[in-house]
Amino acid sequence: MEEFKPEDMMHPPMDQLQGFEYCIDSNPSWGEAIALGFQHYILALGTAVMIPTFLVPLMGGNDGDKVRVVQTLLFVGGINTLLQTLFGTRLPTVIGGSYAFIVPIISIIHDSNLTQITDDHTRFLQTMRAIQGALIISSSIQIILGYSQLWGICSRFFSPLGMVPVVALVGFGLFDRGFPLVGKCVETGVPMLILFIAFSQYMKHMHARHVPILERFALVMSIVVIWIYAYILTASGAYRHRPEITQVHCRVDKSNLISSAPWIKIPYPLQWGAPTFDAGHAFGMMAAALVSLIESTGGYKAAARLASATPPPAYVLSRGIGWQGIGLLLDGLFGTSTGSTVSVENVGLLGITRVGSRRVVQISAGFMIFFSILAVYCVLFGLVAAVGLSFLQFTNMNSMRNLFIAGVSLFLGLSVPEYFEQFTTSAQHGPAHTNAGWFNDFINTIFSSPPTVALIVVVVLDNTLDYKDTAKDRGMPWWVKFRTFKGDSRNEEFYTLPFNLNRFFPPA
To answer: Which pLDDT does position 22 carry in this prediction?
Structure first.
């Protein structure tokens, strides 16, 4: 019997993930790229529908208002995705609606000056204008931090160890939108989850014309099969005597989106009227902009690995945050009902399809703009979380210091937001409940975000606990070359601006 050698179990750390047929700057055929882009669009459509479906009725809007908000969110999301992939980080990231803004938006909806409006449509318009004004002001946070390079300077305090809980909790932190949503209609949710895993993993080696058709298009094929299955259940009367909440989640004829949608309606700035501005509303929204910034930072790090690119340098990261601030400004001008951030589910889809091409995501942005008239999250969020854990390979996990920091930051990153969530559910208000509404919104928003809590904890611990003598254990020798644009020769290939714009905006 051959003698066992410990080195046989060693897997050397790798800058880039392997097994991708197309990386950030390589492209499949136009036909395959268009099909993959449409699949990204279908996934983005889920968030674009869910957020307005929750918020618009609370604002007093009807089905027609909900459809227009969905259209606007898709339209602006497509523009923001194009801006980000062309001029921002240039990573294949879809920019979509963000749940980080829900807390301050709910606070605006419950503002006494708005709730006393008796006419529902008037209340909807006035609430939308108040949200627009707060989004416009809060966009300055990301614009300033991005274009001033301040966020890039802050990133100097991030290490590979520090990025583990942040990126991981970008995925793990969304666990409440995974199986809890599946459980609202197990008849279709569980089959969808099983079918998606079967197509993308167990049957991924099935090819058609040398293309792994089931692996590449597992999402859209699963959706088609399950939608037909759900339609048969609805038409056969399977839900006829079930509770109303079950029918809302399971029937295919309850959303009224298609019947309420106009044939042609192009969103435009200030379509709901002139924004209104309130300092208290804006301050709470600024907290959400900070949370979105942190969550997007984790999203960019994950997307870089899933596109087989090097970690984005500080300059590129700041550039992306600056453009994300421009996107938030567009959200406010058009009236999307919420702010924007990197779509975690679309980042996960890069890994499932093993196609990290920038062109595919740009095509999906085209679909979002043109068509601006779910269960798989369990897999996609989990994959992004696993990418975060992959940064552990660059650190020494035999170090008790590193084990302590990683464990505490991951635990508190999940536990603190869960406390805020449970407290809010039982008390109908967040743990911060003072007479200063702006302060309540700020604290409740910051500490309801798992990646934000994790970043606060890990940055403090990683930069104060025996940090002088542990640079190698933290992974800093590997990390330092990716801090600057010219630190690695591959950065120019991945992150250089198009149209020779680097002449006018040279990397800092």
So the answer is: 82
